[in-house]
Amino acid sequence: MNQTARTPLVEMRDISISFGGIKAVDHVSIDLHPGEVVGLLGHNGAGKSTLIKCLSGAYQKDAGQILINGEEVTINNPRDARAQNIETIYQTLALADNLDAASNLFLGRELRRSGLVDDAKMEAETRKIMGRLNPNFRKFNVPVSALSGGQRQSVAIARAVYFNAKILIMDEPTAALGPHETQMVAELIQELKAQGLGIFLIEHDIHNVMKLCDRASVMKNGQLVGTVNVKDVTDDDILGMIILGKKPAHLAA
Amino acid sequence: MTDQGLSAQGAGPRRSVIDTLEIDVRLLGMLMAFAAVALVFTIWTGGTFVGPRNVFNIAVQTVPVAIMACGMVFVIVARHIDLSVGSMLAMCSAVMAMSQAQWLPALFGLEYGNPAILVATILIGLVTGTLIGSLTGWLVGYQRIPSFIVTLGGLLIWRNLNWFTTNGQSVALTDPNLLMFGGTEGVLGATASWVVGLIASAVAVWVIASARRTKQGHGFMVKPLWAETVMAGLIVGAILFFVGWLSRYPIPEAKLKRLFEARGEVMPEGYTAMHGLPISVLILILVAVVMTVVAKKTTFGRYIFAMGGNPDAAELSGINTRLLTVKIFALMGFLCAIAGLVAQARLQSHGNDLGDKWELWVIAATVIGGTALAGGVGTIYGAVLGALIMQSLQSGMAMVGVDTPFQNIIVGLVLVIAVWVDILYRKRLGLTK
Ligand SMILES: Nc1ncnc2c1ncn2[C@@H]1O[C@H](COP(=O)(O)OP(=O)(O)OP(=O)(O)O)[C@@H](O)[C@H]1O
Ligand SMILES: [Mg+2]
Q1: Is B424 part of a structural domain of the chain?
Q2: What is the pLDDT of residues A142-153, one digit of tens each?
Q3: Smallest CA–CA separation between B313 and chain A, in Å?
Q4: Which ligand is nearest the CA of B312, by number?
Q5: Same domain for B54 and B166?
Q6: CATH code for position B82
Q7: What is the CATH number of domain A1-85+166-253?
Q8: What is the pLDDT of residues B320-359, one digit of tens each?
Q9: What ipTM, to 2 d.p.?
Q10: 3-state secondary structure of A42
Q11: pTM greater than 0.80
Q12: What is the 3-state secondary structure (H, E, C) of B226-272?
C-alpha cells in the first residue's frame, strides 16, 4: 500500500445509506488515485451501484464523508458532482429515449449559439467522438429508443468521456457490448487512465477486472469485504472474497 | 432533436417523395384530415364553408383553445396534465374584466379608452395567470402531488374564485383598445395584412435557407434543392393564400359608417374596406412560433422533452426537474391569460362560464395534434392544427344544422378515432413495442 503517501483523488469515508430498513451501504470506505482503475465487485444487490450513486449525486448519503483531492466536498445532486468533474455511466444508462444521440450526449450542457441550442454543432461533435468510440455508429438522427443496447451504451460512454472528466464512474459499462466493442472500451479505459483519470469500474467479469483494474474493492450485503491489489491476487482469490465475503488467508494477516 | 415519434424512421433505401421532402407523416395525416373536413362541409354548404367570412370566423374562434393547446403540449410532453386551464382562463378573464371596467377607472380615475387601462389590464391578467400556474407547478414539482389532482382541484377552485371576483355578475366590456383582441373589432385591413404575409413568407424562406446552410456547413446530408424549394413554395403559398382570402372579406357598410362617424367624418360614397388578418390570429401565430422555437431551440424546451422521455435521466443530467415543472405550469397559466384576453374581447363581456369545459377541448386538440399522453412526444403546430380541425368540425356541423348534442358526440368520436388510427399506424410501421 504505497498510495498512502499521496493524497487520493477521491476518498469515500465510512459511507452509509439505507432505504427504509435496508442498509444498502453500511460504513464503506474506498479511495481512488489519479491514473488508477479501482474495480468494485460483489454479488447482485451488494450495494455497488448505490455506493457510487452517492458520489455521482444521484443519492444523498446518510452518513460519511466524501473528499476530493483531500478536501471534503458536499455532493447533493448530479450538478454538484459534475462541478467536481465527476462523470458517470449508469447501469441503466440514463438516456432520454425520445431524444437523439447528440441531444443525450449534451443533455444539461447544450452547446449554444446566440442563446439557442446549436444542434448542428452538437451533432458534429457527437459524430467526432462516436467516430473514436464506435466507428460503426450511424444512427445520429433517430431517437435513442431506436438503437440497440450496445449502441445505447456507447452513447452513454461518449457522454461520460466527452466532457474531460477527472473522475469517471462506470457501472457495468460493457454489459451490453459485443466482444469487439468491449475490447474498444478496454482500450479506452487504458487510454483514459494514461491521461491521469481516476476510474471506478463496476464489473462482474473477473477476467476484465484482472486485466483492467489496479485494485479491487469487494462488497457483500452492503459492507466492504476488503480492497486488494490486483497484481497480488489470483482471480480465485477475488471470487472467494465475493462468494465467501472474506479476504484470502495470505492477505488477511 | 427528434420530438416526433414518426418522422424518425428512415424507410429503407428507396426514398419516396414524402421521404425526400422529409414531411412528417403525422403532419401529413392531419393536413389530410383537415382537408377532408373542409371538403365535406364545402360541398354540403354549397361553398359557404370556405367563404372568406366563414374562414375568418373559424380562425377567430380557434384562437383561445389553440393558444392554450400550445402550453398544454409542454405540460403533456412533461408527463403531466392540466385540467384547470378553462378555470384559469376564467379567473384571469375575471380579473382583467374587473380591472378594465371597474377597478382601474375607480381607483386611478382612468377615463374611458385611456391606453393605460390597456397596458395595466393585460399586465394584471398575465401576472395572475403566471402566479396561478406557478402555484400549481410548485405543488406538482416540489410537493409531488400528482398534477391530475392539483389541477382537478384547481378546476373547481379557480372557476368559483372567478365567481367571487365578479360577484357572480357578467361584466360588459367596452374599452375599445381591449376589444381589439377579439377578432372582428381588431383587424389589420387588406394592405397591412399583405405586408405581414409577405414578411412572414420572407422569414419562412430565410429560416429554411439558413437551416440548410448550417447543415451544409457541417457537411451533413441535405435534401435535394428541388425538395427544399417545393417545401418553401408550399409554405409561402399557404401564408399568402390565407392572407389573400381574409383580405376579401369586406367590413359591413353600416359598421364602416359608424367608424367614420366616431371620428367625426363622413364616409365617402362607394368606400369599402376589408377585414384582413385579425389581431387575435396574429397573436396565435406569434405564440405558436415562439413556442416552437422554445420547444426546439432552447434548453428549456429540450429539458421538457428530456424529462418527458425519462425523468430520471433528466435529473441525473443535472436538470432541476422541480423548477422546470414550475416553469412549465407557469407558462401554461401565462397562456391561459392571453387566451382569456382574446376570449373575453370576442364576446365583449366576461361571463362566469367563460372557458367552461375548455380544458377538454384543449386536451383533445393537443392529443389529436399528436402529443402522446405518455410524454416525451409532441409538437406545437400539431396542437394548433388539432384545435383548427375541431373548430372546423364544429362550425361545419353548426352550419349544416347538426344539433349540439350530436356535435359533441362527433367530436368525441373524432378524438378517439384519431388516436386509434395513430396507434394502428404506428403498430403497422413497427414503431411501438
Ligand atoms: N432506490 C432504492 N429504493 C429501495 N431500495 C434500493 C434502492 N436502490 C437500491 N436499493 C437496494 O439496495 C441494495 C443494493 O442495491 P444496488 O443497486 O446498489 O446493488 P448492486 O451491487 O449494484 O447490484 P447489481 O450487481 O445487481 O447491479 C439492494 O438490496 C436494493 O434492493
Ligand atoms: Mg448495480
Answers
A1: no
A2: 899 989 888 898
A3: 4
A4: 1
A5: yes
A6: 1.10.3470
A7: 3.40.50.300
A8: 999 999 999 999 999 999 999 999 999 999 999 999 999 9
A9: 0.91
A10: strand
A11: yes
A12: HHHHHHHHHHHHHHHHHHHHHCCCECCHHHHHHHHHHCCCCCCCCCC
